[in-house]
TrEMBL record:
It comes from Sphenostylis stenocarpa. Its EC number is 5.1.3.15. CDD domains: D-hex-6-P-epi_like. The active site is at H200, E304. One of its GO terms (biological process) is carbohydrate metabolic process. PANTHER family: APOSPORY-ASSOCIATED PROTEIN C-RELATED (PTHR11122), GLUCOSE-6-PHOSPHATE 1-EPIMERASE (PTHR11122:SF13). The keyword Isomerase applies. Gene3D superfamilies: 2.70.98.10. Belongs to the glucose-6-phosphate 1-epimerase family. This is glucose-6-phosphate 1-epimerase. Keywords: Isomerase.
Length: 347
């Protein structure tokens, strides 16, 4: 088969590079000629040549996603300010997981099972999902990427289950970052499986001593620093003076992280994820981690949407969906511009 395109005779064997050239040309044309309100997606190389996807929204916000781990490593607002913490010592070299951003913990959170700490999804190479199932459209944004993970032979040996994990990462018109996970049991032998899960989000903060978390007060939690014993949170908000590693149970769908110094509030919205992990390693554990700066604990806080206490069980053909939406809004207690309860209840 031969055909003429753009004045050149092309063979069937050259069809793929030809399509890529046309795609690249149209993408570049869209960037230059499309109205400023059109978001776009860019594919490029990241650290150590690892492939990444850059999402850009028309107002200036952006996000970067590595195919290794389906790992969001950057989320910037329309002023170019980085909203996620990424360690200066993060290792971008498989099979080491990337320290910071938003690691995906699946099919296990923690190190209590037979798998590696936090499962294997965060240190596998994902692929672009060319044929994703329909996703609910609740945003006008076109700045999104669909990724998919299927078990490798090694994964099947350690975790003998068939699954498809589809993940959509999107930027909303206002700069909100949205991650929607769909995990389906594709086992043809009638075998169910169970898993635990977390979006291990590292937020960038000015100073951990200036941060408070609202929405988790009075809730029960499992303390990982005390053998996962169960306690009830006291006080009207979480503040931080030492290491913390807690799994809060039956949490609300919205949690607020207030950074007094930066006059910024992160709002975490979640669906299908009943638990929330709050973690900061503090000084001793920070120094013990090779991929974490000694003083970097001061500038990060993990608040993670999760499903841990009650593992999710899927029968063959069943699908679970877990959604996370992150937004950052200006706030100032000094000027009275923000009531955190109003953020939790009304935003």
């Amino acid at each position: 088969m031969r055909r003429r395109i753009g004045g050149e005779v092309q063979s069937a064997q050259s069809k793929v590079p030809e399509i890529k050239r046309v795609y690249d040309f149209l993408l570049e044309k869209e960037k230059t000629s499309a109205p400023s309100s059109s978001p776009y997606v860019e594919f490029s190389k990241g650290v150590n040549g690892l492939e990444k996807v850059i999402l850009r929204e028309s107002r200036g916000s952006s996000a970067e996603v590595y195919l290794y781990g389906a790992h969001v490593t950057s989320w910037k607002n329309d002023h170019g300010e980085e909203l996620l913490f990424l360690s200066s010592k993060a290792v971008f070299k498989p099979p080491k997981a990337i320290r910071g951003g938003i690691p995906i913990c699946f099919p296990q959170f923690g190190g209590l099972g037979t798998l590696d700490q936090h499962g294997f999804a965060r240190n596998r190479f994902w692929t672009i999902d060319d044929d994703p199932p329909p996703f609910p459209t609740n945003t006008l944004s076109k700045a999104f990427v669909d990724l998919i993970l299927k078990p490798s032979e090694e994964d099947s040996k350690n975790w003998p289950h068939s699954f498809e994990y589809r993940l959509r990462i999107a930027l909303g018109p206002g700069g909100d970052l949205m991650l929607t996970s769909r995990i389906r049991n594709t086992n043809s032998e009638g075998k169910p499986f169970s898993f635990t899960f977390a979006y291990h989000t590292y937020f960038s903060v000015s100073d951990i001593s200036e941060v408070r978390v609202e929405g988790l007060e009075t809730l029960d939690y499992l303390d990982n620093l005390q053998n996962r014993d169960r306690f009830t949170e006291q006080g009207d908000a979480l503040t931080f003076e030492s290491e913390v590693d807690k799994i809060y149970l039956s949490t609300p769908t919205k949690i607020a992280i207030i950074d007094h110094e930066k006059k910024r509030t992160f709002v975490v919205r979640k669906d299908g994820l009943p638990d929330a992990v709050v973690w900061n390693p503090w000084d001793k554990k920070a120094k013990a981690m090779a991929d974490f700066g000694d003083d970097e604990y001061k500038y990060m806080l993990c608040v993670e949407a999760a499903a841990i206490e009650k593992p999710i069980t899927l029968k063959p053909g069943e699908e679970w969906k877990g959604r996370l939406e992150l937004s950052a809004v200006p706030s100032s207690y000094c000027s009275g511009q923000l009531d955190p309860q109003r953020v939790l209840q009304g935003s």
